[in-house]
Amino acid sequence: MAKRRKVSKPFKYNPVSVKDLLVEMKDISELMVDLAYSSILFKNKEIAEDVTELESRMDELNYRIRITAMLAARSVEDAERISAVLQFASASEKISNAAGDLSNIILRDMKIHPIVYEAFEDAEEQIEKYEVSPKSKLSRMTLKKAGLGSKIGTYIIAVKRKDSIKYNPSKGFVIKDGDILIARGSNTGLEILKSICSGIKTKW
Amino acid sequence: MADILTQMKNNSELMVALSYTALLYNNKYIAEEVMELEEIVDKLNYEMGKKILQKASNVSNPEALLSLIHITEATEAIADAASEIADIVTRGIDAHPIFKEAMKETDQIIARVKICSDSIIIDKTFQEIKLQSKTGIYIFLIKRDKDYIYSPKKNFTVNEGDILYGIGMESGIEKLHELANCKLQT
């Protein structure tokens, strides 16, 4: 498929808080890196295409933050602080571009060298996917209650339910049996998550 | 060769997490750690480039190496971006209060706690302290002198001067500071 990118949509300015823009940029850029690595790991084109789509969302956010920033400067002090905001925005855009380059490997059907998988296997942060069994305590639980991050150090980056994928699910997200959780964490944490998803482990 | 790429991936991801933390606490120590890691990643990137070129001259179809080049470049770019974020802090621009607010809204608050003298957890293992259940903080990294220890095990013994990195809620982080007997470095 041809790469769809940098198609500038007509842009209407409506005021958004810089804080909200920053939060979204940080979250999306982190998510994109995780997804890009998983697209390579699972050789999954759908995920790789989603990375491309998120990349254009990042472009838009970056545009918005620049405009908002320019409107906000009233003094030299303001301008100094705002330059920090812009530096942050450009850095997260760089991260998202790097993620886009990673997922392009899959979109372009590039042959992946075995050394890549060897390297990923030994890396500290791993990505795995597990299906939630009806026997699992996670079923019908919110992510907040599950507390996987602070208890076992694993983060749910996406949940696949039927044909749709929910990225960066919020704390209030309710897990259902049959959901496929795409999680990031250390090997130890992911092993625990695996047994929680299958229902073998009921306390954590 | 795989081990070099593994280290690049580990370090670049660690740098991103640390650079956000540096911004959240406007903390120069953490920002400097990001810069130290950046130098390491630069060296690894150079090594990796050399290795790829060597390999390319020995194989009949060097195209298979393209994926390696792309991934190496991407991890290097991520590391660079992280050091740009840390640079906001080292430059001493009074980090916009907006960063503080923005970072707090994301669920993962990262704590950096140094173990100071007379801390009650020195020479104890994680299992003995029950750090996890007492504070709700997941320790994912320890810096001991120049070394980084990833995902410490339960039998890991805490030393004076260790720097613990953990993820969790604000309240647990306060508790962790009490145990470490150290004030937050600002």
Describe this structure in words.
The complex is a heterodimer of chains A (204) and B (186). In chain A, 56% of the residues lie in helices and 11% in strands. Chain A has 204 residues and is α+β, with helices and mostly antiparallel strands. Chain A folds into 2 domains: 18-107, Methane Monooxygenase Hydroxylase, Chain G, domain 1, CATH 1.20.58.220; 125-198, Regulator of K+ conductance, C-terminal domain (Alpha-Beta Plaits, 2-Layer Sandwich). In chain A, strands 1-4-2-3 form a 4-stranded antiparallel sheet, sandwiched between helices. In chain A, helix 1 (18-41) runs parallel beside helix 3. The radius of gyration of chain A is 19 Å and the shape is globular. The mean pLDDT of chain A is 88. Chain B is α+β, with helices and mostly antiparallel strands and 186 residues long. Chain B folds into 2 domains: 2-98, Phosphate transport system protein phou homolog 2, domain 2 (Methane Monooxygenase Hydroxylase, Chain G, domain 1, Up-down Bundle), CATH 1.20.58; 107-180, Alpha-Beta Plaits, CATH 3.30.70.1450. Chain B contains 7 helices and 4 strands, in the order H-H-H-H-E-H-H-E-E-E-H. Chain B has a 4-stranded antiparallel sheet with strand order 1-4-2-3, sandwiched between helices. Chain B is globular. Chain B starts with a helix and ends in a 6-residue tail after the last helix. The mean pLDDT of chain B is 86. Classes of the chains: A alpha+beta (204), B alpha+beta (186).
Name of the CATH homologous superfamily of the largest domain in chain B? Phosphate transport system protein phou homolog 2, domain 2
Number of strands of chain A: 4
Lateral strand order in the biggest sheet of chain B: 1-4-2-3
CATH fold topology of the largest domain in chain A: Methane Monooxygenase Hydroxylase, Chain G, domain 1
Rounded radius of gyration of chain B (Å) = 19 Å
Q: Spell out the helices and strands of chain A N to C.
A: HHHHEHHEEEH
| Continuous helix count of chain A | 7
Which fold does the CATH topology of the largest domain in chain B refer to? Methane Monooxygenase Hydroxylase, Chain G, domain 1
Give the strand content of chain A: 5-15%
**Name of the CATH class of the largest domain in chain A:** Mainly Alpha
What is the subunit organization of this protein? heterodimer
Helix content of chain B: 55-70%
Largest sheet report of chain A: 4 strands, antiparallel
Strand order of the largest sheet of chain A: 1-4-2-3
Low confidence ranges of chain B: none
Tally of strands of chain B? 4
Give Rg of chain A in angstroms.
19 Å
- CATH architecture type of the largest domain in chain A: Up-down Bundle
- Give the SSE string of chain B: HHHHEHHEEEH
